[in-house]
Amino acid sequence: MENTISGIATALVESGIGIIRISGNQAVEIAGKILRTKGGKPLDIRESHRIRYGFVFDGEKEIDEVLVSTFLAPKSFTGEDTVEINCHGGILLMQKVFQATLKAGARPAEPGEFSKRAFLNGRIDLSQAEAVADLISAKSEDSIRSSLSLLQGSLKEKIKGMRSRILEDTAFIEAALDDPEHISLEGFSEQCQAHVEGILSEISELLKHQREGRLLKEGIQTVIVGKPNAGKSSLLNCLVKADKAIVSNIPGTTRDTVEEDIRIGSLSLHLMDTAGIRETEDIVEEIGVNRAKEGIEKADCVLLVLDGSLPLEEEDRKILALLEGKKVLVLLNKMDKESILQKEELEKATGFPVLPISAKEGRGIEELGQKLEELFYTGSLSFSTETYIHSERQIAALEEAKSALELVLEGIRLELSEDFLSIDLVGAYSALGRILGEDVSEDLINEIFAKFCMGK
User: Fold this and answer.
1) What integer pLDDT is reported at residue 382 of this predicted model?
2) Residue 229 has pLDDT above 70, yes or no
3) Among 56, 142, 175, 401, which residue is least crowded by beta carbons within 10 Å?
């Protein structure tokens, strides 16, 4: 924290603009050593929240023509003096400007160190810091909205509200125990119970949406299944718009899983093509079949591909038996041929929605996106304006707080002394505080920010 750090804040690829960020007590001084006006004089960048035009020099050698933004403490992202040099976005050029800042006295920033300093300087809490990383890696519009909501403090405000009520009750108990002559605990149990039940309801609501939070972050885990030669690999290639999987007329061509991340409609899918599911004596193919079955168990959504040019066979029925309780969309493939299977009959037989497609010709693919949106937006999963959490750390802290508060209710039921209730109230207060970054170890903080990208 005593050092002034520098890092390339934009991706190290050719682009229109590259940004080198400097943060720390000596940020203005260090940047000033390498910045000059068009006339060759030192560039004055001491005024906060202003953009200046100038040139970067390495010694007497001019490197680039730049725009420079200054943000003085505490009104900066990190809470420290910060200077951002906007240079042209050539890879070598960005590296040269970055090296010039190091020669002038800065040290290279570690991954996530700018965000880490923002946390340590109280500009953001730990839940907001984690939201920064999620916002960068967001794969869908819903994920962006959710991460932005967390970054703007939606979870922070919920946690602060819960902790405020717990603190109020804890403080009242302590005060009553210290001064029993003037502060009575009569009727307190009912008040405390109402507070605790309300907080437990809020915690349960947050935990209820953790699955949605994971789907927003990672994408919907979608597995393509069907018997051999139904057109699964053709569908994958059609969806990713590339020849990712080998396609042939020989059943059993696909023997391993092929995975891709795609966007379809407004949804983000982690797509997995699998081996055709059938009885086989081929050891390698059997491994692929077992992986397909494992994929079904872990999937959020299953795309069952059926060959519409053939009648429903025993192999198809065995696959359908594996899909009980899953979100399934049946794709009636090979509509470019004469169809034997009919959509309405198949929906009655399977109980799942059916969409006729031709993976070979790309027919029905646009409707596939619409069907998936219907399946997720109007079903049990609905990406609304809720606060979604998916961090294992946050979930564990909420579970701990929930357990502590349930002990408080049990203590009230057993009519235990209020000082016993206070112990569990403090436990819940501390657990919730860890979500915001209070009372967390240095190792945990380092672990969280080490996962951030360089320059952030």
Assistant:
1) 47
2) yes
3) 175
**Peptide bond just before 74 cis, omega within 30 deg:** yes
284 alpha carbon, distance to own chain's centre: 35
136 burial type by CB count under 10 A (0-12 exposed, 13-18 middle, 19+ buried): exposed
CA-CA-CA-CA torsion for 123, 126, 132, 133, nearest 10 degrees? 150
Which amino acid is present at 318?
K
End-to-end CA distance of the chain: 15
Q: Where are the beta strands (DSSP E) in 117-266?
A: 220-225, 258-264
- Cα-based distances in Å from 229 to 130, 263, 328, 352: 44, 25, 20, 21
pLDDT for the residue 215? 66
As a whole number of angstroms, the distance between CA 369 and CA 101 comes to 48
Is the pLDDT assigned to residue 381 strictly greater than 60? no
The enclosing H or E element of 88 equals strand 82-89
**Spatial distance between the Cα atoms of 113 and 358, rounded to a whole number of angstroms:** 50
Is 414 strand, coil or helix? coil
Which residues have CB under 8 Å from 386's CB, separation 6+? 205, 209, 212
Q: Are 206 and 387 in contact (CB under 8 A)?
A: yes
Of 149-158, 265-274, 309-318, 371-380, which gets the smallest average pLDDT? 371-380
> What is the average per-residue pLDDT within 324-350?
83
- Report the pLDDT value the prediction gives residue 244, as an integer from 0 to 100: 53
Compute the Cα dihedral for 424, 425, 426, 431 and give only its sign. Answer: positive
On whether the CB atoms of residues 247 and 253 are closer than 8 A, the answer is yes
In this model, does residue 246 exceed pLDDT 70?
no
Q: Which residues contact 337 (CB under 8 A, 6 or more apart)?
A: 308, 309
How many angstroms separate the CA atoms of 240 and 236, rounded?
6
In the sheet where 35-36 sits, what is the strand order? 35-36, 50-58, 61-71, 82-89, 15-23, 5-8, 107-108
Give, in order, the Cα–Cα distances in Å from 259 to each of 3, 78, 113, 236. Answer: 43, 38, 33, 9
Task: Give residue 257's pLDDT.
Answer: 60
Q: Which stretches does DSSP call E strand in 243-349?
A: 258-264, 267-273, 301-307, 328-333
pLDDT for 247 beyond 50:
no
What would the two tokens of residue 359 be?
A: 């993976």
User: What pLDDT, on a 0 to 100 scale, did the predictor assign at position 254?
Assistant: 46
